[in-house]
Structure prediction request, 1489 residues.
Amino acid sequence: MKEKIDPLKRKRSAGFSILAALLLIGSGGRAQQLANQAAPENMSTADDSLRSGLLLQNYSDLYPVLNGVRTGDNLIESTGFLDGRKLRSTPATFINTGFTGRLAGLYTHQSSGQPGSDGVSLSLRGLSPLIIVDNIPRTLPPWSINPEQIESVTILKDALSTALLGIRGMRGAILITTRKGERHPGFNMDITAQAGLSQPVELPNPLSAYDYARLYNEALLNDGQSPIYSQADLNAYRNNSSPYTHPNIDWYQRILDDQTPFNRYTLNAEGTGKSVHYFVSLDYMNQEGLFRESTENAYSTNSEYQRYIFRSNVNVDLTPRLSMSANLFGRIRDANEPGGGAANIFNALMVTPGNAYPIFNPDSSLGGNINYKNNIYGQSIRSGYTNNVYSDGYVDLGLRREMDDLLPGWWVRGTVSYILTLNQSINRTKNFETFQMLTDPATGDRSYRRFGTKSEQNNSSTVSARRHQVYAEAATGYTRHLGMDKLDVLLLYNIDYNTLNDNLAEKYETLGATVQYSIKERYLLQAATSYSGNSSYAPGQGYGVFPSAGLAWNMHNEPFFESGFINALKLRASYGLTGNAVAGYFEYIERYAGSAGYYLGTSAASQPGIIEYQGRNITTWEKAQKLNFGMDLRFAGSKGALTIDYYRNKMSDLVQPRGSSAALSGYGFNVIQNLGENLYSGLEITAGWAERKGDFAYAVSGNLTVSDSEVLFNDEPSYPYEWMQRTGQPVGQYFGYVSDGYVTQAGGGPVVEGYQAVPGDLRYKDLNDDGVINQFDQQPIGNQRPLLFYGVDLGFSWRNFNLSLMIQGVSNRDILLSGSSEWEFQNNGKGQAWQHHLERWTPETASKALYPRLSVGTNVNNHVRSDFWLRPASYLRLKNAEISYTFDDIALGKLKVGGLRIFLNGLNLLTVSDFSQSDPEVLPGAYPLQRVFNGGLTIKL
Amino acid sequence: MTMERKYTLSLVLLSALALGSCDKYEQQPVSHLTYDYVYDETDKNGEYARRVLNQLYSSLPKGYNRIDNVVLGAATDDAIASEHYNNIEILSKSRLNAMSSNPDAVWPQSYAAIRQVNLFLDHIDRVPVDPSLLQYWKAESRFIRAMHYFELIKRYGGVPLIGDQLFEQDEEITIERSSYNECVRYIISELDSIDPLLRPDPIPDTELGRITQGGAQALKSRVLLYAASPLNNPENDPEKWQAAADAALSVMESGSFSLAGNFAGVFVSRKNPEVILAYQRDQTNDVERDNAPIGYAEPNQSNGFVSPTQELVDAFPMANGLPIDDPYSEYDPLHPYDNRDPRLSATVFHNGSQWLQRTVETFEGGLDKPNLVQRQTRTGYYMRKFLADFSDKSDFSNQNHNFIIFRYAEILLNYAEAVNELGQTDLAYEQLKLIRERAGIEHGDEHMYGLQPAMTTEEMRSAIRLERRLEMAFEEQRYWDIRRWKIAGEVANGPLHGVQILRNDDGTFSYQVDEVFNIRFTSPKMYLYPIPYEEIAGNSAIDQNPGY
Prediction:
């Protein structure tokens, strides 16, 4: 750890060129520059080309880890590394979309495609990781930034790598390092302009009004009720002969556009002067939403997302031994939404049948009726808009002094950081009226019945959240070579105040130390520990010690090792205790809180009430004992590389509801306390190969993760049947009935207790043979195998052409279908029905029915959790692809530029899944996943 | 100073500033209402302690559309839910088991309330309020605790009695259930001891809604009546009936209460001589919006959640007091709602009722039963009881909608039932006549209000049960009555009916009674609720009720 603050200078080696040639995407002129440097003699090591998504640790390049950098040879920790340039080919708002499939151990899931809310959720070895930017933990991760500012992403997976995070190390961490500017002399600037189109990957398939009405009648008959649509009604729906009384509307088509534009402009500059090096980035992005707009409004009612970013990272060598760094970041995100709310409108699109009401009545008022008072067109066009502005900014200041004038190998460092985040909501919504047209059967006169009340447009604003964070750290380190051995010591103290709105600051405090000893570069020993705490626990309960240790063996540095097919081999192991603070906000203080009051006296005077606040009974932090074994291998003249990690994390004191708590105590059921024990284990494999043949070069890297979990203890009641036990099952295992075909005769079964079945109802297995189906017949349903996910990254280059493909997939994944997107006529019969309901059970189709008989409303027998509604949802996606061409020095008129690169890329291009009803990640009812086609050019000046 | 020192110093200062600015804050939030704040030893007004008591009041039982938008009566032969698959069907279809969610579960809620009372009693002596006020407060909170025990035992049978105990959150608990009779004895002893400590009736206007001595006596009357009923008194011990009769009589003899003049008005007034204890609510129109017929436009859009049955409608006698199947009743099947007991029209909306300046149309295709895709009556009736009179108003306005927990009419019926079981039929007659007179039933030549003369105890029992059903419909009485009488297996187990009304071309109507719902009562297990599975898991000393 003797290296200086800019750790990455050494990796700009000649060997870097292949990576540039093969995998660089959207990185501006430097790609071309580096591609030109590529020469056959440099091909012997393919290190850099494999670096992305593949951490090969057996060489001397430096990797960012917590509080510094390490050479690959010195890494004992289990980590994963992603070069920031890999993120630039992904045309998405959130940089973490680019993580998908690229890092072993990190599972991503995207649940919405709405601009500004389309990030992925991250799960690192089963838990949501802590996000650290430039060594400072961030409560609100800045995912929505331009990828050009990212130097690298490191994931910290085991106990040793997170030891100095103390009480917040258990969840693992993602360390983001921003670009600090090249350290070789000169000045680089590049400008990128890109524009694209995004379109929904898949929209749900509702029934036409005719099919809807026909099936509705059938469902009513099934339920023993009379049909409500006459043959004349059905004909009118089929022929569209009376659009005002018998509308047939494809809401998705009427409310949404097919596609929507996206564009982004970036300027990056970096350079090095005599004693200064810097990186500056400016970025503007605009992503339009899918909602159609109308000229009747002077404002936008689309869900638009605009973003402005400024970053400036400056490092100054104040004196030969003293250097200072200043990172400034500012960002404004401006998210517009129709007044009806994008999420509400997507929900309305899902639950509103095509025959619900006409958009407009003959008198051009908005249609509506007693069941559907809220016209979707009105929600999207005539409800005004809301505007959320998120502003944040931060300043990191660091000062580092080499103390080798006093003691060779000694340094000290101080860091402070201040972050402010402000969310402001501007409400310019308004309400509209809808009308139902009524025709007098005798006279034919029309009258209109009104629903809702019109209102003037609001104009108000609120600051919905204000957060600030103050962080300060002091660190000192010492490195000493003792002959062939080496000692590295680091000691640090940091304190972190996070304040939300009017709350008192939540304080984290950590004192930590790590010692690494390397014997002849063969044997590495490392111990780290921290004393760390959180202020929200009761006094005396919030601080603990989190020790860990690891060792590694660099076999290739042994005298006996002969480099053959295998060029390098390292074995590693680590073990440690980690913690996760979950105290809440001063939950431990016994107190009263506001509650329901009462009305006393003849005047009905309101009397406020207060009640004992029964907080979560949390006395300690969650804990995990983490064990990790790893192996790093390099072979075939270092063209190939392989890393394997196995982990076993045993967690305890997890905050969970107590299964066996007597409500007699007055605390209700499910008292929340530290009790759960889970075991997470898994295998992570990353492999890669890179090679150049003449003008042609290629690189392949892939990763595979097998992630398993088991509930060891959750204090559940002892159930009468073993199949009801959650203990021993994977964490989050689905439980439900086991379906057993369809009921064939009225009153048949077994069906849910108290339910009188008709033919076509689902029948269930009566596990305990008591004649009825109830909770005692619920067992684990669906997949119990470990989750498996993988990614394959392919890069090809031929002369100045580059092509990259990112393929990603998930296996052993289930979706449990429920609600209006799956079941017919929900919401008391007002809900939608779908194409898949055409495959329903009827007496004629009994043998090949794929869906139970239809009913109106939520059927207590059929519409309950059972394996019938569980679908395997494994998938394989062509997540990201890019093709580019780089021109060498080129003259644009009189302007001579250093290089020009043109590129086309895309996101979510192709999906193969055994789940056919919708996209396997973003389910119907949410803003759909977007497929993006994007193109642009980068000019290097 | 060298350059280096300057830089270092300025940065050190800067960090000191950043850190220093944080330490000025308190280490724990001062805004929290800690116990010392709430039970303030210096607050003569007991400002926060009073709020604790307000919250305890808010835990009293309240009815109206409390179970998935419908009244508890929708799980009896009186009504059904207008929505198919409403959660009330868990009760009306006997779908309850120990692990399913019980829409009428009170176990955790009542014990939570009991804990809050115990906390209050444990701390309140520290607050230096006026001793007489302190006495009232403590007695009121003990009444609320007794009420919760009664709510528990009528659902679960005997339950664990925990007295004044307070438990820790992670305490292991093993407490057995006390027997039903032990629980009754505990409740009665509590009520007897707080009776003299409570405010006397009538209560001043400013304190209206507080629990009074009348409230304690009324609860005692109900508890003892339930304890004497067949479900809980299988050996038919007359002493239990005597105790029930005495308890009702003491309310009657207090002279503090009387029947109000207008039946329908009882439910929409705050201050009323008939009301002994009511759950006090704000003035609202939610009860109208939940229950009135569906065919009205904004701003009077209503939901019609409850569909009363033909069985209930047919149970109402004629205005002359005779049952509709009596040969002398003058019942006209072509005009089935004419000349009926006035309580019928005050209890249900039927075709032709008046509401918001028009007649209610529950005929097929009528405004209030349009047979379109929507929630509407399934029986041809909507619930009208508890609604203010908006017959000739154009729009809803906020009204008093306290939910009555005890009213004088119940006391009379409690008394009639108990004395009849003791063979004193004549005393029972008196009460029924009082109630029928107030209902607006004609007294007739014999001043019998349509009651059969010289009824046997059995005949009188039926008459009292009928009167209780009509008078107390939807007041959360019948659901429990048919259980304690052990008749649920007969009356709430089979088809329930509604009426299909066709409008003829000449404007007249024809009526056809249809089966609309099949109510099920699994006997005997549904006489008591299952104790939640989690409770048995958490307290190994608890035994489950039979059949679960």
Q: What stands out?
A: The first strand of chain A starts at residue 62 and ends at 65. Residues 1-58 of chain A have pLDDT under 50 and may be disordered.
